[in-house]
Amino acid sequence: MTDETRKVLRLSGTDVRQFLQGLVTNDVEKLSHGIVYAALLTPQGKYRADFFLVPDGDDILLDLHADLAPGLVQALTMYKLRSDVVIEDTNITVTCGLGNTPNGAFADPRDASLGWRAYDGRPGQEVDWTELRVAACVPTSGVELNSDTFILEANFEKLNGVDFKKGCYVGQEVTARMKHKTELRKGLAVVDLSGKAPVGTAVFAGEKPAGTLFTQSGNRAIAYLRFDRAQGQMTAGAATLNYRN
Predict the structure, then answer these.
(1) If you count Cβ atoms within 10 Å of the first and of the last residue's Cβ in the chain, which end, N or C, has fewer?
(2) Are 243 and 204 in contact (CB under 8 A)?
(3) Residue 1 lies in a domain
(4) Do 59 and 147 lie in a common domain?
């Protein structure tokens, strides 16, 4: 299938890799091996945008949710100052599928269950991507990911979206501190689900707030939980939830 929710930008110029290396959460040098999943954070370490960096000769394609594109272009333009970096819109489409990765396509770096991504106009496949995303606990912008999100609470380490050895980037200090805590107290998790409730419904363990319910598919959902309270059966509106750690 063609993912109509995505926008592809082209970044070019002699400074483009060095420029991105000082901004994003993952190591841009990994582009020599293929596609890279990464994010841009605020200086306070909170989510601003997530995207795929895709090697295209000397250029880098940036595949992101279309709603994020105007704000990200504005931020990158602010950061680039006098760097030799050109940011351009493209008409490139994103197609996705499952099975063996075709020549010229890229295996999704977040989770093997998410198949492949291509940028050359080849046909994609009709797949229930929401079901796969929930099963792998993969967040998406505008639902699980927002301006209050800390990416380690949103599963970015497991999804290969952050590198702790690459050096400094925007928001790195906060992210590193969270990494070196003994344990995350809150975060996204897959829960068993019975019934339905609107995205954003508060989760309760008894009478105590325990988190927020997000994307739902069949009898599973992604929820943001306070792990110390996520014990036994919980409720979210008319839905009941169970978290199996």
Answers:
(1) C
(2) no
(3) no
(4) yes
User: How far is CA 133 from each of CA 15, 30, 154, 222, rounded to the nearest angstrom?
Assistant: 34, 24, 13, 9
Which of 179, 204, 234 is at the close of a domain? 179
Spatial neighbors of 183 by CB under 8 A, at least 6 apart, are none
Give the pLDDT confidence of 45-94 residue by residue, as tens digits: 999 999 999 999 999 999 999 999 999 999 999 999 999 999 999 999 99
Please tell me whether residues 170 and 194 are part of one structural domain: no
Q: Contact 135/116 with Cβ under 8 angstroms?
A: no
- Among 157, 155, 128, CA closest to 224: 155
Counting the structural domains of the chain, the total is 2
CA–CA dist 196, 199 (Å, integer): 9
Query: Which tokens is 36 given?
Result: 């890279």
Strand (E) or helix (H) holding 71: helix 69-80
Alpha carbons 130 and 49: distance in angstroms, whole number: 20
183, 189, 215: which is closest to 201 by C-alpha? 215
Partners of residue 86 on adjacent β-strands: 12
Give the predicted TM-score (pTM) of the model.
0.95
Q: Note whether 60 and 154 are same-domain residues.
A: yes
